[in-house]
Write a structure and sequence with these properties.
14 strands; about 35% strand; elongated; six-stranded antiparallel sheet; about 15% helix; alpha+beta
């Protein structure tokens, strides 16, 4: 793009979501032993890289000029249905079609391409604006939802929503600083600060288009976390400590299930290392550790 005189920067998104269902959430399905089920291929990659290009967007409402996300290595087909397009298409031609012929349907729907998507639209959760804004929004700001499937063989459609992680995706979004060999953090250009009212409003706006028809759970009285007692180094044993915190005024006896699985950088499971399942009682207004 730079050789054509278009300002361009490389972007790295750490903990980059791959939403394969188009529902703007990363859904993880577990059985009662805590092992992941292959119900969906949603995943969170260690990182993913794309480009931002600076350009006008006459095909969008006023105010969406500027940085546009453009992915030359997309993970899903572009928005829309397969149109019988074959052969290989270049990103420059895609831009020409979508900007110069704004009143015509793009012939590239269903092709493995992504963007251009306005960063302003991504940040505000305006996933209905072209092109592929919905997918890029999920890459940087999807919620991670954990589901329990009690009987995946006979009743795979019956599931319980266990937990949601609202800040698991889109960390330290980075580019190279201008004129310096330094990392420049551009996370705030892609989304509001995690957990702020503005960020939650953007997520709700996006989900209004694609929200799954399931109820949201109440906050559980027993919270679960874990940490490593020692620094984690490649090739050395890892000892994890599971912490249980009871915020209620009564003792709580829970069924604790923990599963440790080996994954590749793009979130694919390779092997199950260990499974732990036992009943644990946590006293009222207290914390308990288990290793």
């Amino acid at each position: 793009m730079r050789c054509l005189g278009i300002p361009t920067r490389s972007v790295t998104n750490f903990c980059s979501a791959h939403d394969t269902q188009g529902n703007l959430t990363i859904d993880i399905y577990l059985d009662q032993r805590g092992q992941r089920l292959d119900i969906t291929t949603d995943s969170i990659w260690n990182f993913h890289v794309w480009n931002d290009v600076w350009m006008k967007r006459p095909d969008l409402p006023e105010g969406y000029d500027g940085w546009q996300a453009l992915d030359a290595t997309p993970q899903e087909k572009s928005e829309g249905k397969e149109q019988g397009v074959s052969g290989e298409w270049f990103g420059v031609w895609r831009l020409h079609v979508k900007i110069s012929h704004v009143n015509q349907p793009s012939p590239h729907l269903g092709v493995h391409q992504c963007g251009p998507s306005a960063l302003k639209a991504i940040k505000n959760g305006e996933v209905y604006l072209a092109h592929d804004t919905k997918f890029v929004f999920a890459e940087v700001n999807a919620d991670r939802i954990i589901w329990l499937v009690k009987d995946p063989v006979r009743e795979p459609e019956k599931m319980i929503r266990l937990r949601e992680h609202r800040s698991a995706v889109g960390k330290n979004i980075s580019t190279k600083a201008v004129g310096k060999d330094m990392r420049q953090d551009i996370t705030m250009e892609y989304k509001f600060a995690e957990g702020t009212p503005e960020e939650r409003k953007a997520v709700e706006r996006a989900l209004a288009v694609s929200r799954p028809d399931v109820p949201f759970p109440t906050t559980p009285t027993v919270q679960v976390g874990f940490e490593s007692r020692n620094a984690v180094r490649l090739g050395t044993p890892v000892t994890l400590c599971i912490s249980l915190s009871n915020s209620s005024s009564r003792d709580q006896t829970i069924s604790l299930t923990a599963s440790c699985q080996l994954q590749t950088y793009d979130g694919k499971n390779v092997a199950t290392i260990k499974v732990l399942k036992q009943e644990v009682t946590v006293q009222a207004k207290s914390c308990k550790s288990h290793s």
